[in-house]
Amino acid sequence: MILITGATGTIGSEVVRLLLERGEPVRSLTRDPARAAGGEVVRADFDDPESLRAAFDGVSTAFLATAFGPRLKEHDLAMVEAARLAGVKKVVKLSAIGTGDTEDPADIRAWHLAGERAIQESGMAWTMLRPAGFASNALAWAEAVRSGGQVPNFTGDGAQGVVDPRDVAAVAAEILTGALTGTAHESRAYALTGPELLSVPGQVAVVARTVGRPVETLAVSIEDAAAGMRRSGAGEDLVAAVVAGWTMLRDEGYPVLTDTVQAVLGRPATSFESWVQDHRAAFTE
Fold first, then answer.
1. Nearest-angstrom CA–CA distance, 151 and 143
2. How far apart, in whole angstroms, are the C-alpha atoms of residue 122 and residue 117?
3. Distance between CA atoms of 207 and 84, rounded to whole angstroms?
4. 97, 118, 142, 260: which sits with the fewest CB atoms below 10 Å from its CB?
5. Dihedral pair phi/psi, residue 261, rounded to 5°
6. Which residues of 72-99 are buried (b: 16+ CB within 10 A; e: fewer)?
7. Looking at residues 33-47, what average pLDDT do you find?
8. φ/ψ bin of 39: left (φ > 0), alpha (ψ from -120 to 50), beta (otherwise)
9. What secondary structure does DSSP assign to the chain, as a single string?
10. Residue 233 falls in which region: left (phi positive, over 0), alpha (psi -120 to 50) or beta
11. Mean pLDDT of the region 161-178
12. What is the pLDDT of residue 181?
């Protein structure tokens, strides 16, 4: 049995779909069973240890995806403990690119460290997946693109190796199943990127080509963006971490490209342009 946590999220739901296509036994863990993508569905909550223990019962392999936020560390540790107590043999954790670059708790690149270290010390076989920013984050611009508005840009010309989340899920599914009896991916931390470095203006240019009309960006200061997060109710811990991430990307970028998708899947990573073409309707309808 393979347990997928975060089973209704961007990556988790796609991992469930891919595993079911392969005929694998899948258990989807979610707080909202009505939204589950399929397989055996269990309701569990990170704040309810008994529900987590029940969810992991009988599981041999687990995909751990924790919702981003100030309680990420706490929720990661709860899942790792539940997996360990249940005798899970193998864990694939969804982390983030840059994890380990700093141990500053206010820096977004340190938020996954506690969970990664707990897994490494658990005795379970493990693989960490550290993706760059998701191509699907561009969906936040869809309304502005459809209405002819401007896309806000908090990070200037800072570029990163934007990755298709479907590639991340496909890598996870391959590691969860293709190496169940082997050790090729064990004790490895994989940075996952797309094939090119793109800034926000670069991504918007791709969207504009795809929809066939100009799309403008609007420079927004990080201070103003942070104020908007506070007005929407975000806590100071989250605001501080996101601001640190925006500032790093604006000032330095994250100029890292890897061939991990190619190495694991045997095909090139999907381009941002291909992702936009596949989701063109979101920007036009």
1. 9
2. 9
3. 44
4. 142
5. -60, -45
6. bbebbbbbbbbbbebebebbbbbbbbbb
7. 83
8. left
9. -EEESSTTSHHHHHHHHHHHHTT--EEEEES-GGG--SSEEEE--TT-HHHHHHHHTT-SEEEE---SSTTHHHHHHHHHHHHHHHT--EEEEE--TTTTS---TTSGGGTTHHHHHHHHTSSSEEEEEEE-SBGGGGGGGHHHHHHT-EEEESSTT--B--B-HHHHHHHHHHHHHHTTT--TTTTEEEEE--SS-B-HHHHHHHHHHHHTS--EEEE--HHHHHHHHHHTT--HHHHHHHHHHHHHHHHT-B-----HHHHHHSSPPPPHHHHHHHTHHHHH-
10. left
11. 95
12. 42
pTM across the whole model: 0.94
Query: Has residue 105 got a pLDDT over 80?
Result: no
Over residues 42-69, the mean pLDDT reads 90
- Residue 219 · residue 153 · CB < 8 Å: yes
Nearest to 63 by CA among 97, 103, 13: 13
As a whole number of angstroms, the distance between CA 179 and CA 263 comes to 14
Name the residue with higher pLDDT: 45 or 86: 86
Q: Would you state the structure tokens that stand for residue 35, as one six-digit string? A: 């939204």
Measured distance CA(176)–CA(2) in Å, rounded: 8
Identity of residue 27? R
Residues 6+ apart with CB under 8 A from 255: 159, 160, 197
Do the beta carbons of residue 175 and residue 90 sit within 8 Å? no
CA 153/CA 231 separation, integer angstroms? 18
**Tokens 């008994």 found at:** 50
